[in-house]
Amino acid sequence: MVRLEKIEYKPRPVRDLLTEIKDLSELMIDLAYSAALFHSYELAEEVLELEKRVDTLTYILGMSAMLAARDAEDAEALIGVYAVATAADKISDAAADIATIVLQKIGIHPIVREAFQKVEERLARAKVYFSSILVGHRLGELELAAKIGVDIIAIRRKGEWIINPEEDETIDKEDVLIARGAPLGVEELKGLAEGTIQKFED
Amino acid sequence: MASTKKLFKNITNRLVELKDTSELMMDLAYSSVLLNSRELAEEVQELEERVDSLHTEFELLVLSSGFKPEESKDFLGLIRLGVVAERIADAAAEISEVVLRGLKPHPVLKLVIEEAEETVTRVQVAKKSSLIGKKLRDIQLPEETGMWVLVIRRGKKWLRPQPNTVIKAGDVLIASGYTEGEEDLMKLASGETVLSE
Question: Which pTM does this prediction carry?
Answer without folding.
Answer: 0.79
